[in-house]
Here is the input.
Amino acid sequence: MAAKKILIVGPSWVGDMVMAQALFITLRQRFADCEIDVLAPAWSLPILARMPEVRRGIAMPVGHGKLELGLRYSLARELAGQYQQAIVLPNSLKSALIPLLAGIPLRTGWRGEMRFGLLNDIRLLNKKRYPLMVQRFVALADSGTAPVPEHWPLPALQADTALAASLFRQLGMDAEQPLLALCPGAEFGPAKRWPERHFTSLAAHYIDQGWQVALFGSDNDCAVTTAIAAELSPDQAVHCHNLAGRTQLSEAVDILSAAAAVVSNDSGLMHIAAALARPLVVLYGSTSPTFTPPLSDRVRVLQLAVDCGPCFKRECPLAKDRGAMACLEQLGPQQAIAALASLLADEADLIAAH
Here is the structure.
């Protein structure tokens, strides 16, 4: 019997794509010889290349939120006749068009944006039954009648260690010195970003302990990472590497895989670090780990209980009145240092026990 071929219409955000690997792993567990292709934004192809369950990533030619029926139809014609099933992860109507136009016989997804007729294996989402996004992804691997998965496979990205070593050399980093990776950006908005001065204090502490620090982010995060590095002393700055805007996403994955520890806001890089099984401390502000937590056994989550949160706002609506964001301003660097020290101590104990 020929291998079952499945097309996944993937999500548009970095973290969601990382979490979707739990679905890919589940499908391979249930259909050992299945072949999985993922239709997704072009930026995500390097992430998909680091998921061994995925045969190939297919670049979505249409920008997020755009209709462009001609482009969708052209791609659908190319994909026609190749798949027995499509699983559509986004809930938008537009995301279900290509599987329909490609004539894929079985088209699975949550009901979402009135997609009757576009999907023929349509599921009604019970948010209480599936409170986590990863549960909602994994649930689409079954027939729709299976019980809620209490456990699911953790995403596990495979980094290119040889490329990581080469990148260390190119970027002037010391492969023998422990690396603390800091991820101070958040595309969602400033209400998810730990204050820059807190990141600077954290970086200075670990540099003084003999570590090197790397600041990760996209071009959009350059102002934030530059401000963090600028407040270090000259002696400390020598051991701080500002990588924002200097690395491709694939390169950031490989460098992160070599980090001794990671401290991050709730962001796509946080999910990548979790999927690389790095010791990870996550700082939550306006959002909550109750829907899209880092999927890892090697993580500490820090979040203050404040009367105004979590508010899920992109910008703090009370910052002007209070002079600061209470949820993140009051979450000080010493708390992050203590959490990371505890995590690393537990890691050392596990290693010693074995």
Notes: The chain has a mean pLDDT of 91. The longest strand covers residues 35-40.
